[in-house]
Structures are given as structure tokens and as C-alpha cells.
């Protein structure tokens, strides 16, 4: 079995304790189906080429330079050595700034996850940090230079090791105010809320990533296989007819109640007692009428 290649090696430091660690990619898209762009006429791959937007001439790599647009069509040119000088110095150390409760973590800021494992010596200090965070139910906020940028990293206990998630900066995360600005102020209660809670209760489960299939990848793989074998291409099924947009009716159907509202059933004993009282009342009324003296006209 080939050992994974570390993306970064350095140290993690909390207080005066430090130990060597390595970062490994936790999520990758390399296994996804990838396409090449071809020339339809020749079947050959095409290559990307940078051209001058005004002259249309090809621009060689050595003549390409970074530029920042300050006005429409006006740029500040930045040479490669000038950009390199702006990169923060790195001492390859993840310095823990603070430990925060896991309940305070806002996943909106998550960028990319990496496995953080001990590298060579220092495993005792690593396990001490891992188990200490587990027991205290906290995560660590650390900073270091990763991949040419100063990054903030959230570190959490994960199985036998730690998982480090790079975080987006505050200016990179859009405010939710704009997305939810037009949300109406509604109060849902009564039967609708009861039905919703019932449906949620019947759908409770546990997280299992292996059950989440990538239907697009499977469909593309089947398409490629059919093309290779010369079989008819798979056809997409027509979508089912949509149901009426009545929320309450949809909730009742989801709960298996059809279109009738839920009504509590009376206990059998109470129903029988009610029937007996009605029958007794009718019998007494008839008896009273038959026993009454008849009046004749004089």
C-alpha cells in the first residue's frame, strides 16, 4: 500500500508544547470523470493558448505578467519577484491562538479539510492535544502560512488523529441578510406543525456518507460505456406529474393520511355508554306517552 504524500509538513504549537505534524488532503476531486476538449473534425486534443485581446497575437509564457485593474483598461503590472516578496514569511508552525467550544463553530466559514497527523517524533504531545480537546469538547484556532498565504485553521479531534479545516476570511463569506431579506414573518402551528414533526420523526437516521451516491458520475459512466459498446444511449425518464401546491394536503399525504384531517377516535367504552344513554332516553319517552290518560271531547 502506497503511503499518502503530505501536502505540508511543520509543527503545531500550543503553549510551550510543540510537535512535528503533516497535513494530508482529506477531500479530492481527482477520481471524478474528466473530459478532454477535442477537435470535432480531427479527433485531436486542442490546447489552450493565451492571446492578446487587442492584436490577437499569441503571448508566450515569458511575456505573461500579472496585472491589477485600477480603471477600465488601466492596469498596475506586478513582476513575479514583487509578488513573491509579498508572501508572508513562514516558520512552518501552526500556532494555536485559542480553544473554542465545538458548539460555537460556524461551518459557513469552512474551506478545505486536511488530515493532521504526527510526523516522526512527538506522538505523545500529539495524543495529549487530541485527547485534551476531546475531553474538553473544544476545537483549536491556529494560524500559519499555507500554500503561499497566511491561513486561519480550525483543528478538531477526528478518530485517531486531528482534522484541520482552512477557514474562509470574513470578507469572503457573504452575509445571509441579503439571502433571507425577503423571508416573511410566519408562525406555523396546529395541525401543520404537528404533521411536520411527525414526518421528521419517521425520517430520523444517522449520517453515512457511503449512502450518498453521485448520480451524475454514474450516469456519465454508463453513457461512456454505452458509446464504447455501441448500445442505444440511455434515455432520461419523464418527470412525474407535480402534485397540487396545497401545503396542508401535501403534509397529510406525506404522513399517510390522504386528504382527511386527523381526528382523535373515541374510546369504544365511551361510545357504547353514549349509545346506551340515547336508547334508554327513547324508551322512557315512549313509555311516558303510552301511559298518559287520553282526553275526549265532551
From TrEMBL:
Instruction: Write the signal peptide boundaries.
Output: none
**BP-aspect Gene Ontology terms:** DNA recombination; double-strand break repair via nonhomologous end joining
List the GO molecular function terms: double-stranded DNA binding
Q: Where is this region: Disordered?
A: 232-298
Against InterPro entries, the record matches this protein to:
DNA_bd_Ku70/Ku80 (IPR006164), Prok_Ku (IPR009187), SPOC-like_C_dom_sf (IPR016194)
Q: Is this entry keyworded DNA-binding?
A: yes
- Which Pfam families does the entry link to? Ku
Highest taxon in the source lineage = Bacteria
Q: Report biased composition (Low complexity) as residue ranges.
A: 281-298
NCBIfam families assigned to the protein according to its UniProt record, in alphabetical order: Ku_bact (TIGR02772)
User: Subunit composition?
Assistant: Homodimer. Interacts with LigD.
Role noted for this protein: With LigD forms a non-homologous end joining (NHEJ) DNA repair enzyme, which repairs dsDNA breaks with reduced fidelity. Binds linear dsDNA with 5'- and 3'- overhangs but not closed circular dsDNA nor ssDNA. Recruits and stimulates the ligase activity of LigD.
Q: Which family does it belong to?
A: Belongs to the prokaryotic Ku family.
Q: What is this protein called?
A: Non-homologous end joining protein Ku
- Species annotation: Metarhizobium album
- Give the organism's phylogenetic lineage: Bacteria, Pseudomonadati, Pseudomonadota, Alphaproteobacteria, Hyphomicrobiales
